[in-house]
Amino acid sequence: MSSAMLADLLKSLGLLGLFLLIGFGLRAKLKFLQKTFMPASVIGGFLLLILGPIGFGLLKIPEEWIKMWALLPGILIVPVVTATPLGLDLGGKSKKELLNIVPLVLIMFGVYYLQNAIGFIVNLIFNSNGNMYPTFGWELSIGYSGGHGTAGILGNMLQELNLPYWETAQGVAVTTATFGIVGGILIGMVVINWAARKGETSILEKPSDIPEEMALGFQKDVSKQGSLGRETTKSSSIDTITFHAAIIFLGCFIAYALLGLAKAKNIPGFKSISVWAYGILVMFIIWGIIKKLNLDFLVDSGAKGKITGPFTEFAVIAAIASLPIQAVLEYIVPILVLCILGFIFTTFYLLFMCKRYLSDYWLEHMMATFGMSTGVFLTGLLLLRVCDPEYKSPVIGNYSIGFSILSAVTFAIMPLILNTILASGPSGALMLTGGITIVATIGAIITSKLVK
Predict the structure, then answer these.
(1) Are 216 and 210 in contact (CB under 8 A)?
(2) CA 34 to CA 52: how far, in whole Å?
(3) What are the phi and psi torsion angles at 86 (to 5°)?
(4) C-alpha dihedral, 332 to 337 to 338 to 344, nearest 10°
């Protein structure tokens, strides 16, 4: 790689940064963007896509930049996913409290793999003429429960295997994520209003107004602005953010080394596992060592988030700005069917399971999980805040723990699903994910009875 290539990369990141700021400004000014809580990275990404050569061509962007942007999510998502186990904390819960969270976690798994199964069913329905690529439909869970950033994981996995449809799949995942985050907010508000009228909310009598700062995307009052995290180290030795970044990058380095070794030794199975899957395993080990040495006070989840957050934002805007519109439009009908079925089954599965098998604050748990299952973690927090404005219930803690466990496990299982698709096709993946859905659902039912 030459200095000119690195300079091009920096300049292309500068353009992405400009449109991130434009997206931030538009979100702060336009009411309809505030009502849908569209992230600045998504707004800026679509604006850049429309103005760039893929859209109307009003901006003369070098083709090499578009290619770099398409590749960027698959690279940036490696440290994001690798960092997941670092600082993983069960919140100081007692054994009894943790047991009460088990049904919620199993319901989270159930709805996630239900989305997987629905996606593969849609693939089989539309693949009568053999015109669907093998992994189509997987984008439902990746886009809905993973969000825009996770589209890069899909692109990374398929590209590593030199599968020619990786850009299309990444673009479809971006599309489902966009449908998910907008539709999830709208459907979530409808469900909250219905529940409030029916007296199903434990705290709220009528839906509260969304705090202004959440709609605008910034906090005007300096005294109310949150902290970026604990300063666990002193800058006289090493900056706190740098310290956390060093741990994350070390995990990435070891992960790439293990993958390289598996390929060099031609180890079956291990040579085809994505690098970020190795990263999760490595980081669990690193975090275990840190805790064993009683050095866990040096790690702060807030500080970690300020490293992975920017990677995710740039991964999202890069994925959207390089979205292959023509290729995605070829699948627009099955994509629409995919998204509609996703909303229907996600909504009714969570309504049924949470109301029936979560004894306390079922609606609040359901809305947090629904937000996560159609958008991102913050979408769940947003819907939870609407029906529990001051976070008086224990839901936020339970939700955070459940999300952490779900993220770590589902990321680890993704390579297994991909290998199943490539070996046995969508029908094999349907059997696998459908089976996990059934097991998780039965587990939620049984454990809900045991913890009462």
Answers:
(1) no
(2) 25
(3) -65, 120
(4) 150
Query: How far apart, in whole angstroms, are the C-alpha atoms of residue 233 and residue 415?
Result: 36
Encoded tokens for 93: 């819960």
Q: Once rounded to an integer, what is the mean pLDDT over residues 408-412?
A: 82
85, two tokens: 């186990």
* Burial of 44 from C-beta contacts in 10 A (0-12 / 13-18 / 19+): buried
Hey, what are 186's tokens? 């709208």
Tokens 């349907």 belong to: 430
Residue pair 358/330 in contact (Cβ under 8 Å)? The answer is no
Helices 63-82 and 3-29: angle between axes, nearest 10 degrees: 80
Integer Cα distance of 399 and 372 in angstroms: 9
295 has a pLDDT exceeding 90: yes
From start to end of 377-426, where are the E strands? none
CB atoms under 10 Å from CB of 239, counted, come to: 15
CB 138 within 8 Å of CB 122: no
Q: What's the gap between Cα 46 and its chain centre? A: 19
Measured CA angle at 145 (ends 339, 358), to 5 deg: 105
The residue type found at 352 is F
Q: Is 203 exposed, middle or buried (0-12, 13-18, 19+ CB in 10 A)?
A: middle
Measured CA angle at 149 (ends 147, 154), to 5 deg: 95
- Token reading at 160: 């590593």
- The token duo for 442 is 């039965």
Contact status, residue 93 vs residue 100, Cβ threshold 8 Å = no
Please check whether residue 185 is in contact with residue 375, taking contact to mean a CB–CB distance below 8 angstroms: yes
Tokens, residue 30 = 């336009």
Q: What are 348's two structure tokens?
A: 């009714």
Residue whose pair of structure tokens reads 């995919």 in the numeric block = 338
The pLDDT score that the predictor gives to residue 432 is 97
Q: Which two tokens stand for residue 401?
A: 């723990």
**Separation of alpha carbons 32 and 197, rounded Å:** 25
Which tens digits make up the pLDDT trace of 219-253? 777 777 777 778 888 888 999 999 999 999 999 99
| C-alpha to C-alpha distances, 34 to 19, 27, 182, nearest whole angstrom | 17, 6, 11
Which tokens hold the place of 421? 């698709």
